[in-house]
Write a structure and sequence with these properties.
single chain; 202 residues; mainly alpha; 7 helices; elongated
Length: 202
C-alpha cells in the first residue's frame, strides 16, 4: 500500500515538473526570440551590404568580419527559435493524438488482453532520422494520426500497431529536437553581442 502511494506521489511530481519544464521552455524561447529580434534591429546598419562588399574587395577587415558574424549569429538564433516553436506545435498535436488513442483503446479493449506497444529509444534513430522528422512533417499534407476505426482494431499484431509506434517515435524525436534547437538558439544569442562588441573595439 505504501509502495503504491509512493509511486503515485512520484508520478505526480514528475507530471508537475514536466509541465514546469514545458512552460519554462516556452517562456525562454519567446524571450530569446524577442531579445534577438530587438538586438538585430539595434546592431543592423544600412551600410552592412557595403561592408560585406568591402571585405571581398579590399581584403580582410577583422572588425567587419566580426560584425558580419554577429549579424549571422542573430539570424541563426532567430531561425532556431522559430524551429523550436514549430517543433513544439507539431509535438503537442501528435502527443494529443497519442493520449486520445490510449484513452479510446482503454475504453474499447478494457477487458481484453490487448496492449498498446511501447516505444524504446534507439541510438540509430537519434543519429540518422532526427534532422528530417520535422521537415517531413512540415512538408506532409496530413499528419500521421489514428482514427476511431483504427483504434477498434488496434492490437499488438495489427498493421495499425506500427502506425502507433511511429507516432511514439515521432513524438520522441521532436522532443529531442526541441531542446537541441533551443540550446543552439541560446548559444547563438549569447555569442552574437560578444562578437558585436569585439568588432567595435577591434
Amino acid at each position: 500500500m505504501e509502495t503504491d502511494y509512493k509511486t503515485r506521489e512520484y508520478k505526480e511530481r514528475y507530471s508537475r515538473w514536466q509541465d514546469a519544464a514545458i512552460t519554462q521552455l516556452g517562456y525562454s524561447n519567446n524571450l530569446i526570440l524577442l531579445l534577438a529580434t530587438g538586438l538585430l534591429g539595434f546592431v543592423f546598419e544600412k551600410k552592412t551590404y557595403f561592408k560585406i562588399l568591402n571585405v571581398f574587395q579590399s581584403g580582410i577587415d577583422w572588425s567587419t568580419v566580426l560584425y558580419i558574424f554577429a549579424i549571422l549569429s542573430l539570424f541563426s538564433s532567430i531561425m532556431f527559435g522559430l524551429l523550436v516553436t514549430i517543433s513544439r506545435l507539431y509535438n503537442f498535436r501528435i502527443d494529443r493524438n497519442i493520449v486520445l488513442t490510449r484513452k479510446r483503446f482503454h475504453k474499447t479493449h478494457n477487458n481484453s488482453e490487448n496492449k498498446l506497444p511501447k516505444f524504446h529509444a534507439k541510438s540509430h534513430l537519434r543519429n540518422k532520422k532526427k534532422c528530417f522528422v520535422l521537415f517531413k512533417l512540415v512538408l506532409t499534407k496530413d499528419l500521421p494520426t489514428i482514427s476511431d476505426e483504427e483504434v477498434a482494431d488496434l492490437n499488438t499484431v495489427c498493421p495499425h500497431c506500427s502506425k502507433f509506434s511511429n507516432l511514439l517515435e515521432i513524438s520522441y524525436v521532436l522532443g529531442i529536437l526541441t531542446w537541441r534547437y533551443h540550446k543552439r538558439q541560446l548559444f547563438f544569442f549569447v555569442i552574437s553581442p560578444i562578437l558585436y562588441f569585439i568588432s567595435i573595439l577591434a
